[in-house]
Every structure is written in C-alpha cells, then in structure tokens.
Amino acid sequence: RMQMWLTNGSQEKLSDLRVQNCVMLKGAPGFNQQTNDNKLFRNEFVAAHTPDKKRWIITAWTPIHRGWANPPCPCLHADPKFPDCAPGETQRIFGWLSFYEGEDIDQELRRLDSLPWRSWEATKP
Known about the structure:
Layout: E1 2-7, E2 17-18, E3 22-24, E4 39-42, E5 45-49, E6 55-62, E7 64-68, E8 75-82, E9 90-101, H1 105-114, H2 120-123
Antiparallel strand pairs: 1-9, 2-8, 3-8, 4-5, 5-6, 6-9, 7-8
C-alpha cells in the first residue's frame, strides 16, 4: 500500500490537483517492451505483463484521474487526483503496487479490488 497526502498551508482552496505517478519499467526484464500491447487498463488498476502473460506488475491509485502508459518510455501510470483541499485541511490519496505470477489477471484484479487499501484506516498498523 502507498499513501500520499497534501496539507493546504495557503489561504485559498486548492482544486484540480493531479499527480503524475510513473512506474518505470525500463530496467525490468520482460516488462520493458516499448509498446502498450503488454499493458492492461481497468478502472484504478494499470498492469504490464511479460510476453507469456504469466508475470504481471500492477499499480493503482485512488481517486484515479487517468490510467495510461507511454510506449516510447516503457512505464505505467495510474495518475490520481486529490480531492479539493480547503485552507488548513489535509487530503490523502491511496495507492497500490504488487507483482502477480499467474494467468488469471482478472481474478487477481478482483482480489485486489476487495482488499482495504483505499482508506486511511487500512494504512494503520
């Protein structure tokens, strides 16, 4: 699980704050093809697979702004967007990064979707 937060120290409301969060795959053997043909985009989840589709790197952020990838620079993006943040307020967004070995990526995404990684309570020890 991952968490990012923003505290508004200004006197004005902050809105439409988007984060570009890159998972670089260049140094990951089997995942570094310069294409989007080895990528999967499902709601908050963005995943890349090896040519045999048996190993996966999965990332997600919530609330999601957009999932995408850049073929010339092998990477994954699950770019989140912070909720509006009033002066003095703190907003949190939550992320996920995991590795999966197997052929049923849909089942794995359903499993990840059921885990409590999208909230502050889930991040407490």
